[in-house]
Write a structure and sequence with these properties.
Layout lengths: L2 H12 L25 H10 L2 H5 L18 H18 L4 H10 L8 H11 L6 H12 L10 H8 L10 H24 L10 H7 L3 H16 L9 H19 L2 H4 L2 H17 L22 H10 L3 H11 L2
Helix pairs in contact: 2-5, 4-5, 4-9, 4-11, 5-8, 5-9, 6-14, 8-9, 9-11, 9-12, 10-12, 14-15, 14-16
């Protein structure tokens, strides 16, 4: 009995005509024998869950660096929240939940320590720049398993690469993760910002709150329902225009009043300096970079990666705590 084939048959018969079926996947960079139990997207999900990069998300900043309190989001809890929102939408639209979950769980694997502050630092020092979505693809394709990568399916890689706002995922499942990411971080970051005392509920823009809901729970539920209503039976993932405008308006509000706030930016220069100093140190002491990052993978031309690129891989993979400890070591 081949359980995978039974699952694929079930997908063929029951999923929406617009769903991405695992039996129709474009495959992997390196061909593998199919599993007799799991579909290709289930295997991808499991590989991501068992990766070292996924475990490190627990100790990486979402917005607040070293907050005093146990209930602030980390990059891991954000990832799990995105996954749950995305699966709810995919299930209601009768799309491929396993593909959706795999993309969601892998979308932020390339994020730096210290959140977007770390991303900004590496973007400044690395020739060619640094973007966490592209780094996430590097993690699963080249860095994990000592340079072997996870050999994920092309559909999962596409969703991870294109989860940012300007990306254009090829699958509806990828589009779901793209919008679920925004729904999650806007609403959950509002909760954390209120908890931190940076803003209060009364400071939130009234028109947006009146339409979407007063609490994060209400807003997320409203947004999910609006997406389902506007996307059901269609080859697209859509929102009502005024609802979409309100979500993006809340996002703009968060950038102006939280992400760029004095409270968050007081330590910004400090942590940008931490990564810049580490980058400088490892350029001058390349022998200190762990061997698992050196000469284990090649660029698109089949050549060995440049030293600066490998240093960026090493730094991006660090947790907040590990980066601070390394910085303190080199400054002794």
């Amino acid at each position: 009995m081949n359980i995978r084939e039974m699952k694929e048959k079930n997908e063929s018969e029951k999923l929406s005509e617009f769903a991405c079926r695992s039996a129709e996947s474009e495959g992997r960079a390196i061909k593998e024998e199919p599993c007799d139990i799991r579909t290709c997207f289930e295997r991808d999900r499991d590989r991501i869950l068992h990766s070292k990069a996924f475990r490190r998300l627990m100790h990486k900043t979402q917005v607040f660096i070293s907050p005093e309190g146990d209930h602030y989001r980390t990059r891991l809890t954000h990832t799990l929240e995105v996954s749950q929102i995305a699966r709810t939408i995919a299930s209601a639209l009768n799309l491929n939940e396993n593909l959706t979950e795999a993309i969601a769980l892998g979308h932020d694997l390339g994020h730096t320590p210290f959140g977007h502050i770390g991303e900004e630092a590496l973007n400044e020092v690395l020739k060619g720049g640094f973007e966490h979505n592209k780094q996430s693809v590097r993690v699963v394709s080249k860095i994990e398993k000592n340079g072997e990568g996870l050999n994920l399916s092309k559909e999962v890689l596409d969703g991870i690469l294109n989860h940012r706002g300007k990306g254009k995922p090829k699958t509806l499942e990828g589009k779901i993760v793209q919008i679920s990411d925004k729904i999650a971080y806007v609403n959950h970051d509002i909760e954390d910002a209120i908890r931190a005392g940076i803003i209060s509920e009364g400071m939130l823009p009234k028109n947006e709150i009146e339409l979407l809901g007063r609490s994060a729970k209400e807003r997320i539920d409203f947004l999910i329902r609006d997406i389902i209503k506007n996307s059901y039976g269609k080859n697209d993932i859509k929102m009502t225009e005024d609802v979409k405008d309100c979500l993006y308006s809340l996002r703009d509000y968060m950038f102006e009043n939280v992400y760029k706030s004095k409270a968050l930016n007081e330590e910004k220069d400090k942590y940008i300096n931490v990564l810049k100093e580490l980058f400088k140190y490892y350029k001058e002491n390349y022998d200190k970079v762990p061997s698992e990052f050196k000469n284990n993978y090649k660029n698109e031309k089949g050549e060995k990666e440049e030293k600066e690129r490998i240093i960026a891989d090493y730094l991006a993979g660090m947790t907040d705590r590990f980066a601070r400890n390394k910085y303190n070591e080199i400054k002794k």
